[in-house]
Design goal:
Helices cover about 60% and strands about 0% of the residues. It is mostly helical and about 280 residues long. Helix 1 (about 45-55) crosses helix 2. Residues about 1-20, about 20-35, about 40-45 and about 140-145 have low confidence and may be disordered.
Length: about 280
């Protein structure tokens, strides 16, 4: 059993202005702030490609990869079910049973590799599940041997209640939630890296610079607060943004079956945020 918990913090912030531009600067030199240097990430077998490669047979590694993806991206599905008009109690049942079914059976063998995206597979599978599910069938499944998942429903519903009413379709809102979850995951990974390097204070001060344009950043003000000159702040921000972009591409790649669609998926998700 594993706990799936939504992350309601930074994910509620509007992210249309998050910087995702590329940089030609060489980031391999040691940082003057002592921040650890990371070599450029090379595409390897990712979570979703590993699941697809396992096919009908399945492997322990593929199961673990699928569980990781489910733990990360369950909230967009719960919010989607709620947006489809289901009550909190019914949405909880449906979401839990969908993931339990997904993890307990070889339904992943039905995935169409041509879809390429875990996001697309999940939404297609969920819509099929919702179309075939009934209250009587759900009652039968309770106690039917499927391992229940421990989900933080109170936090999920609290997060859902804070969301404004939206004119967009549930599918479009699903993409927005997916993008916000992705940004949450990346920001948390980045924060953990800085904390491990003893730079938690630097990260806390600079993470605001991940939003908006470079010209709008208060470099001088940040420098005074951190005891660094403006040039050092600009270097630190440049490295922060570079690592943020690298981690974002890694996380997106983990939901694809190959590296060729990372940029298009990034454009799609940020387009979904801009439509909100």
């Amino acid at each position: 059993m594993f706990r799936l918990a939504p992350k309601p913090g930074w994910g509620r912030i509007k992210h249309q202005s998050v910087s995702t531009s590329t940089s030609s600067a060489d980031e391999r030199a040691p940082s003057s702030t002592g921040h650890p240097v990371h070599p450029p990430a090379a595409f390897a077998t990712t979570s979703w490609s590993a699941v697809l490669a396992a096919g009908h047979g399945g492997t322990t590694q593929a199961r673990a990869a699928l569980e990781r993806l489910c733990r990360t991206y369950w909230y967009p599905l719960y919010a989607y079910v709620r947006r489809r008009g289901h009550s909190p109690a019914d949405a909880q049942d449906l979401t839990q049973e969908f993931f339990a079914h997904l993890l307990a059976h070889q339904t992943i063998a039905q995935a169409d590799p041509h879809l390429g995206r875990f996001r697309s597979y999940l939404l297609t599978s969920l819509n099929g599940f919702l179309a075939n599910e009934s209250r009587k069938a759900r009652a039968r499944k309770r106690g039917g041997g499927i391992l229940p998942l421990s989900l933080d429903w109170a936090a999920a519903e609290e997060r859902f209640d804070l969301e404004p009413a939206d004119h967009l379709s549930p599918d479009k809102i699903f993409d927005q939630h997916w993008a916000l979850t992705l940004l949450d995951v990346v920001l948390n990974r980045l924060g953990r890296e800085y904390q491990a390097a003893g730079k938690a204070e630097l990260f806390a001060a600079l993470k605001q610079t991940l939003m908006g344009t470079r010209e709008a950043q208060p470099y001088a003000e940040l420098g005074r607060a951190l005891g660094l000159n403006e040039g050092a702040i600009k270097v630190a921000v440049h490295r922060l943004r570079k690592r943020y972009r690298d981690l974002m591409r890694e996380e997106i790649a983990a939901t694809l079956d190959g590296p060729h669609d990372v940029e298009s998926e990034m454009r799609h998700l940020f387009g979904a945020l801009a439509a909100g």
